[in-house]
Design a protein that fits this description.
76 residues, mainly alpha, two-stranded antiparallel sheet
């Protein structure tokens, strides 16, 4: 399957990826530190942070057209 450069697979995909990269940059280290304190194991802490970001990306965030912050936590 060939995708043209810059073509989105789903509407808002570029914005979602930019949002996730920003969240990762802001929170990854703090989340890892908290997970390590709880779990006491580097590999388990890394897995916990990765799982949290995957869950966030797969279903806990949606795109909303319009002014303001386009991302809201699911369930609101």
């Amino acid at each position: 399957m060939h995708e043209e450069k810059g073509q989105e697979r789903v509407p808002g995909e570029k914005a979602l990826l930019a949002f996730m990269e920003r969240c990762y940059g802001l929170y990854e280290q703090k989340m890892y530190q908290a997970a390590y304190r709880i779990l006491g194991d580097c590999a388990q802490a890394e897995d916990a942070v990765q799982d949290a970001f995957l869950k966030l990306m797969k279903g806990r965030v949606y795109f909303q057209d319009g002014p303001g912050d386009p991302y809201q936590p699911g369930g609101n």
